[in-house]
Amino acid sequence: MSDIFKKQTEQFFSISKWEQMNPQLTVGFTTKNGGVSVDDYASLNIGFHVNDQSEHVIQNRAIIAEKIQFPLNQWVSAEQTHKTNICHVTKQQRGLGAKDYNSALKDTDGMYTNEDGVLLTMCYADCVPIYYFAPERHYIGVVHAGWKGTVAGIASEMVLKWKQEGIQPHEIYSVIGPSICRNCYIVDDKVIKEVHKMVEDVNKKPYNLISEGQYSLDLKELNKQILWSAGVRNIDVTNFCTSCGDQEFFSYRRDGGKTGRLMSFIGWKEDSL
Q: Can you give the CATH number for the domain in which 227 is found?
C-alpha cells in the first residue's frame, strides 16, 4: 500500500499529494540521514536542544533548506513544551529559531500561517506531527502532539483556531505523520486514564491491554479520532513508525532518550515572478 509520504532524497519525505494540489506548497518530514552530526545524533539532527554541536545543527538545517529550496532565514521554529499553545505566524517572525534555540517561539506546540515565504517547522523523535491544509483559504499549519498534547486536545485546537478565522472543518485536509506505532508505544494506567476521557464515546478504542497496568497505545489513531470528532473528514495517516524505522528515523524510546530530532515542515514558497 502506497504511503502519503513519498521519499524525495535521503534527507526528506514529502506529502506529494498536497504539493500536487498546489505547487507553491512545500511540505514534508526529514529523515536522520544525509547530515553532518556524529555519534548519537548521526547524522541529520535538526534539534538545537539535544546537546548536539550547534554548528552541526545549523549545517543540517542548511542542507534541508537547499534540498527543499526554502531559505533558512524564512524558517520559524518553536520551543515545544507538550501543551496546546498555537501561534499564528507572520512574515515578521521569519528567522525565529532558525539558527539558534533561544530565539524560537516560546511555549509553542502548533503554528499556522496564510502568508507566503514562511516555513513552519517543528521537531520530533516519536511524537506525532499533524499537518493542516485549507487549499481554498491558503491556510497551512502543523502541530506537535505527544501523549500530553494529544489528550489535551491540540489536534482539535488547530481546528478551533481556524474556525475563528472563518474556516470550517470540512474545508480542512489533515495528514498524520511519522511517529511511534502502537506496537512500540507501551504506556501505563496513568496515560490511559487521560486517553479514555478523549474517546469515551468511541467504540474502537486506540489502545489494548497487554499485561496488568500496561497498554499499547496508537497515538496516530487517537489523533485521527480527535480530528474526526472536530469535524475534519479529509484525513490521511502514514504507516511509517519512527521506532520501527531505525534506518530512516530517530526514536526517543528506541534510542534510550539520547538521540537526534526529526523535523516537520510546511510553507508557501514566495512567488518567484
A: 3.60.140.10
